[in-house]
Design brief:
Layout: H1 2-11, H2 15-25, E1 38-41, E2 50-53, H3 54-78, E3 89-91, H4 101-109, E4 113-115, H5 125-128, H6 134-145, H7 160-174
Parallel strand pairs: 3-4
Antiparallel strand pairs: 1-2
């Protein structure tokens, strides 16, 4: 949302329009963007259409991603992890879809980066396979599949309603 907000303020457009520009054109590495590709947009207060290069938008995006990455580095330091991130980083959420974000993180932290994708999900695969929902699905399924938490006996859950109740109570207990 911070990236979308930056684009909206910079171009003086709605958040909805800024989100479209971010999804379709923005890159976490401005050097990997085109300075020849122009993005057309209409500022909120003007009637005339304007253009901005993909590379210029990506420069603002890259600055915000670098700032977010610095906060992540501080959190990793604060967690007092003694060993380097041997297994790398798994990105989740909608931000994982930002073009070239894996390359930026790998370059800055010198670790492998991959997108997290939910596993063991049946049903709406178009939602389940989207990194945007990985965190939420992971939190919902954690009590079911985690060995470090009281596991639910899937055969004795008593139907879908009881399953949802147990997940709700688990989440309430966490917060």
């Amino acid at each position: 949302d911070s990236i979308t907000d930056d684009i909206a303020v910079m171009l003086q457009i709605t958040k909805k329009e800024a989100e479209k520009i971010k999804i379709n054109y923005a890159s976490a590495l401005s050097s990997m963007s085109s300075n020849q590709l122009d993005i057309k947009y209409r500022p909120n207060t003007e009637l005339d259409e304007k253009t901005i290069s993909e590379q210029e938008v990506s420069q603002y995006v890259e600055a915000r991603v670098q700032e977010i990455l610095q906060m992540i580095i501080k959190e990793i330091s604060r967690a007092d992890i003694k060993d380097p991130l041997t297994y790398g980083i798994v990105m989740t959420g909608g931000g994982a879809e930002l073009r070239n974000i894996s390359s930026l993180i790998e370059h800055n932290l010198d670790v492998k980066v991959r997108k997290g994708k939910p596993k063991k999900i049946d049903g709406a695969l178009e939602i389940a396979c989207n990194p945007q929902f990985t965190t939420v699905l992971g939190l919902l399924l954690w009590p079911v599949f985690s060995s470090d938490h009281v596991q639910l006996n899937l055969q004795n859950i008593g139907g879908f309603k009881n399953f949802i109740k147990r997940i709700r109570h688990t989440i309430e207990d966490m917060f």
